[in-house]
Design a protein that fits this description.
The chain has helices spanning 3-6, 9-31, 36-49, 65-71, 74-77, 82-110, 112-123, 126-132, 138-157, 165-181, 186-201, 209-236, 240-252, 261-270, 272-287, 292-296, 300-312, 321-324, 328-343, 347-355, 361-385, 393-412, 416-437, 444-456, 485-490, 493-496, 498-507, 516-519, 523-532, and strands at 462-465, 475-476, 511-513, 533-535, 541-544. With 545 residues, the chain is mostly helical. The protein has 2 domains: 35-338, no CATH class; 444-544, no CATH class. Strands 2-1-3-5-4 form a 5-stranded mixed β-sheet. The protein is globular, with a radius of gyration of 26 Å.
């Protein structure tokens, strides 16, 4: 977009709304409670900083890119509580990049307006807010994943250029980096493989089957580079088998499983309009597969990837909300697509064309069906989610309807973009209120526990933790340094009892955080703790006698 384009009033308003969402994160990241995963990732980074090799010296089941990045924070901020906020600030930078890349991908696929609306809607998805505030490997993975899509779409769009293969090489490299950030990106790879197969079989891409094979080989070859370099590092450090086993074999055999329905319902409750319009955009984009232009422009790639990623919810043993981040930007783009298409509709011309029978019946039928299904879906989701704004369930719906009615005369004046901007403000009103509510969170209790353990221990002392994470700035007492229910289900009786006792005795572990996960360990461990540890007087923290 040119500078003149950015200075258009509706572009400025959208930019300011996005900026508001990002700025609101700054005070929220200071007060929001910490997920134990955040302590886990920073502890892994600490151990690397102190010379440990992941998987070989301690258990971890995330691919290591983020942990190596976080390691760089320790020389700057030290082993102090402030490193939590430094890491969260880094996540804020990652989030801004994700929002920008969502805009770029939307613009590359469907135009500037789609990109703008996509970035706006993503910024106010509460599940996106909640998980990207946290210290997670999924954030760099999403950055690399969106870059993967941008590069391959550009490669397809510029297929006649002499060196278009470079886009496929860059796309493959980014895909490999995404997988080295989190192995959950393997589901994204499944979508990419399906897209490459589509490119091979569909001549409308404008790429011959022979060239398609070469480009696919370039993509896959480049994708292997980060994996080969990572494997080489662990091979040199005698940890290759552990790297493969912990990340891919154990995760594929994960015993605890649950269905994704509760989190899907949560997404629908938190962002009802986004969910329905996003799915509608996905369906419309699929319907347009019959168009040569939609295939030759590479639009089939994110569509296929979205379906595969959503299917992954029902394949992955534990589809937590962080996994959703891989496809939420894509749903935002499909949502933006619907808004951008509606924004350019000429109401007068449409009425005239309908009166004279100009539109093809199939398009009219599809449009009417889509509109009716959307209205029905929105009414159902709103009755289910029951959004409350200003302590009233009716205000949100009234506010949105009022803005929609106000938008109608603007449409008639052929100012569709401004009309859709008004409607979008109605959409994000409820998510905005939910965002503001998070300012009332409080993490002082967690920080107090972390500081207390720091005060009563030295750098050489070890801590046994179940799943609180409060000892993340001290050495762990046991190879499996977190023992939540999912982890315990993967361990043998000996690993849950004798090996833990041996570790406690050998290292003369000073502190045990006696949370529900430690309480769930076998009786043998409980007797050892009772015989050797006493309550510290500070919460559930026990110290050696």
């Amino acid at each position: 977009m040119t500078i003149r384009g950015w200075l258009r009033p509706y572009s400025v308003v959208i930019f300011l709304l996005i900026l508001t969402a990002l700025i609101l994160r700054i005070p929220i990241l200071k007060v929001r409670g910490f997920d134990p995963d955040e302590f886990q990732h920073l502890h892994g980074a600490r151990q690397i900083y102190h010379g440990d090799i992941p998987y070989r010296d301690y258990f971890e089941h995330h691919t290591p890119f983020l942990h190596f990045v976080l390691t760089g924070l320790y020389p700057i901020f030290g082993e102090e509580i402030r490193i939590l906020f430094a890491a969260r600030a880094l996540m804020l930078v990652f989030t801004a990049i994700i929002v920008y890349l969502t805009y770029v991908l939307g613009k590359t696929l469907y135009g500037t307006d789609t990109g703008l609306f996509a970035a706006l809607f993503l910024s106010y998805v509460i599940m996106f807010l909640e998980k990207t505030l946290e210290i997670r490997p999924d954030l760099p993975a999403v950055i690399f994943w969106l870059a993967t899509l941008i590069f391959i779409v550009k490669g397809i769009q510029r297929r006649t250029a002499a060196r278009s293969w470079r886009w496929f090489m860059l796309s493959g490299l980014m895909m490999g980096m995404a997988i080295m950030s989190t192995q959950k990106a393997l589901f994204a790879l499944g979508g990419m493989l399906l897209a490459l197969a589509w490119m091979f079989f569909d001549p409308r891409t404008g790429i011959s089957w022979k060239r398609s094979l070469r480009l696919s080989a370039i993509f896959l070859g480049a994708m292997m580079v980060p994996a080969i370099l990572t494997c080489g590092f662990f091979l040199i450090n005698d940890g290759l088998w552990q790297f493969i086993n912990c990340n891919f074999i154990m995760n594929s055999r994960w015993k605890v499983k649950f269905w994704p329905y509760n989190y899907i319902r949560q997404l629908l409750r938190q962002n009802p309009f986004f969910s329905v319009i996003g799915i509608l955009g996905l369906v419309v984009s699929t319907f347009w597969f019959h168009k040569r232009g939609d295939i030759s422009s590479g639009r089939f790639v994110p569509v296929l990837c979205t379906y595969v990623l959503i299917a992954g919810l029902f394949i992955m043993p534990v589809p937590y909300r962080q996994y959703y981040q891989l496809f939420l930007p894509l749903l935002a783009i499909f949502c933006g697509l619907i808004f951008s298409k509606i924004s350019v509709v000429n109401i007068r011309r449409l009425i005239s064309d309908l009166a004279h029978g100009k539109p093809r019946p199939v398009y009219v039928a599809f449009t009417l069906i889509a509109i009716n299904l959307t209205i029905a879906g929105l009414l159902y989701i709103l009755s289910y989610s029951k959004p409350i704004v200003l302590n009233s369930r009716a205000i949100y719906l009234i506010f949105w309807i009022a803005l929609t009615v106000l938008a109608l005369p603007i449409f008639i004046l052929n100012k569709g973009k401004y009309a859709m901007l008004l409607i979008s403000i109605g959409f994000i009103a409820y998510p905005f209120q939910q965002t503001v509510k998070q300012l009332s969170a409080n993490n002082s209790g967690q920080l107090g526990n972390v500081q207390y353990i720091m005060d009563i221990t030295t750098e050489d002392d070890t801590v046994l933790d179940g799943w609180s994470g409060y000892g993340f700035l001290r050495k762990h007492a046991y190879y499996y340094y977190f023992l939540h229910p999912e982890m315990r289900a993967m361990l043998s009786e000996k690993e849950r009892s004798d090996d833990i006792i041996e570790g406690l005795a050998k290292q003369r572990t000073k502190v045990i955080i006696y949370d529900s996960s430690i309480k769930a360990l076998p009786e043998k461990v409980q007797k050892y703790i009772s015989a050797n540890y006493v309550k510290s007087g500070h919460g559930n923290i026990y110290v050696r006698k």
